[in-house]
Amino acid sequence: MISGLYLAGTSPLHRAGAGQKLLALIGFGTVLLSLPSVVLAAVGLAVALIGYKVAGFPWRIAYRQIRAMLLFLAFLFAAQVWLVSLEAAALLALRFSALILSAGLVTLTTRTSDLVAALETALRPFERFGVHVEKVSLAISLTLRFIPLVAQVVEDVKEARAARGRERSMIALAVPVIIRLLKTADAIAEAIEARS
Amino acid sequence: MTIAPDKREALFEGVRVERGETLVLPALDLALTERRIGVIGANGSGKSTFARLLNGLILPSAGRVAVDGFDTKAETRQVRRRVGFLFQNPDNQIVYPTVGEDIAFGLRRHKLPKVEVRARVEAALHRFGLAGFEERLVHELSGGERQMVAFAGVMVLEPSWLVLDEPTTLLDLKNTARVMRTIAEIEQSVLLVTHDLDCLAGFDRVIVFEKGRILHDGTPRDAIAVYKAFHA
Known about the structure:
Chain A is mainly α. Chain A has two domains: about 1-110, no CATH class; about 120-195, no CATH class. Helix content of chain A is about 80%, strand content about 0%. In chain A, helix 2 (about 20-35) runs antiparallel to helix 6, helix 3 runs parallel beside helix 6 (about 85-110) and helix 7 (about 110-125) crosses helix 8 (about 135-165). The two termini of chain A are about 30 Å apart. By secondary structure, chain B is α/β, with parallel strands linked by helices. Chain B has one domain (about 35-55, about 80-230): P-loop containing nucleotide triphosphate hydrolases (Rossmann fold, 3-Layer(aba) Sandwich), CATH 3.40.50. In chain B, the strands form two sheets. A six-stranded mixed β-sheet of chain B has the order 6-7-8-3-9-10, with helices on both faces. In chain B, strand 4 and strand 5 form a beta hairpin. In chain B, about 50% of the residues are buried. The model of chain B has no long low-confidence stretch (mean pLDDT about 90). The chains are: A mainly alpha, B alpha/beta. Chains A and B meet through helix 8 and helix 9 of A and helix 3 of B.
């Protein structure tokens, strides 16, 4: 269910600094997007995949990163073939896949706290322009932490909806989910206040 | 941060709490000096509000709450560092995806050096039976394990007081026993809000709330008897 959270390991990628990995990701993305070459995009995808092996992850971990996007990628590919050309479609699909996999690789090999610390360092110069760095970093860590929690709430409500014979009702899903998430948000805000 | 148990004192002086038009606690005057204090009462009786007053999560509309001499309204930061708070649902309390990172959360916010953060997290993992869990994803743990992570995240800050708001409600018998064993072992002064009357065995004092007022304040045996008789 949750694909992009940190997986402990001792590989060179795990040991590399969070800032280095983020910079490498930015560089990798810039090169991929600025040079319109199918061969280069294919090499980029291969590099991202090799990264999973270097990190010591089985292929299924790489597949999990991209699984949720497959339908979307297929739609984009088909639209590009129809509207532009097969080459443009291949370029787009390869670029997207390489980017998704490489971004996933960064979050899988980097602790959230290290990622947040690196982002805090990067954002620090913007404090003078009113950016509240600690709030931004807390928001990022909370987002990562609560992906599974939100998914669990949706599953619970789906189950309750089915038990009441309303499997297809969007209202029976959306209303309880929103209410529970709003209540959870209040409780989390209170807990963070208590822990600070 | 911890101070000697015999020097700890929480004072409630003429405390009144209103929420909008509703009067939650009309008038409260008491001093807490015991090491193990229980709070019981029906749903909506004001016991959770009372607990939240202790670390400034709720501020009095009138009157004053002071913990170890620090006013919860004027010196909230100092009060929060002295009073840890454990909530009913650990999922609402855990901020980071992995166990070790979450236990370190409060320490980092207090800008402690990395070496000290590391050492204290390590010690907390061992103390709360979480050795080897440091890199584990929180959402993959059981409810009892998650409550212990939340517990460790509070205790790693070494508060003098610990407020627990129905910490065993979502737990099975085994994990309830585990949490209660841990509570019995800690040096902190404890204020436990609970519906589980068995958890109050061995406590020094139990306060019974009813509609925002104190119905009884005494030994666990007497307090539980009064509470049961009132709701019989």
